[in-house]
Amino acid sequence: MSKLKIAVQKSGRLYEESMQILKDIGISIDNGRDQLKASAKNFPVEVFYLRNGDIPQYLKDGVVDAAIIGENVLIEKGGNIQIIQKLGFSSCKVSIAVPKSAKYTNMQDLDGKRIATSYPNTVQQFLDKNNVNAQLHIINGSVEIAPNIGLADAIVDIVSSGSTLFKNGLKEVEVLLKSEAVLAASPLISDDNLDILNTIKFRIGSVLKGRRSKYVLLNAPNDKLEEIIAILPGMKSPTVLPLAQEGWSSVHTVIDKNKFWEIIDILKEHGAEGILVCPIDNMIL
Ligand code: PRP
User: Fold this and answer.
1) Quick check: 235 pLDDT over 70?
2) What percent of the residues of the chain are helix, what percent strand, and what percent coil, each to the nearest 5?
3) CA of 135 relative to ligand 1 center, distance in Å
4) How far is the CA of 136 from the centre of ligand 1 (A)?
5) Is any atom of ligand 1 closer than 6 Å to the C-beta of 140?
6) The whole model's pTM is what?
């Protein structure tokens, strides 16, 4: 039977959540990342633990069929690699930063300057687009130190919380792109493995919908039911069940996690009581 080869980051910011999402979609992995690859017990998948920067090439060459990888790395090194699904974690930006004390009004201030980065293709494209001529210094880690040691006037690197920039006395001045973890496919994936990948995509979709939602149960007096139902932006229509206590009903529905507190406050104002809120593992619509 055909097995889908899926690459994940061997170490780094995507690793934990990549393994968590595989677990959440019911794929349990036999052995850890000390091995280069591991098989799933219950699903036709082999997981390859690879260096982040190598994954786009493995996808291009068809060495792996799919990968969980940062969009930023795909944009830098990719080409013809299809993004199957955004995964909603490891959000970051790829940004230009300069020393806090540096004068910066626009991109022209970088003309003739030195920029240290691990993203030379992304940076060069951005410079070309803005008609800026700068000298690139390609370094593979600790990029933010470059201005402090006199290696560069500016840097381009990923910014997540912004704390690395802050600690190194830098300020963000331009955002080149926004990125998150994605599920990506090799252009050489076989039809059989594409079927497996589509099953993974379907399962991930239902896990992500679940993560974005909350299941809400509440009690409401029957004379307030209509207005309470009007407040609830449910999947279709909320489930309404009579309570043992006459004149009251139980209302069940799903609401968006981000709107949750706002909606709960309005529900209380309209007479809802005994509100229970539960997490959702999966939503299969
Ligand atoms: C990345 C990046 C920055 C830092 C930004 O490094 O290179 O240094 O994160 O994150 P922050 O805005 O939350 O401070 P990472 O630790 O992922 O490892 P790397 O040095 O291998 O890129």
Assistant:
1) no
2) 35, 35, 35
3) 22
4) 19
5) no
6) 0.88
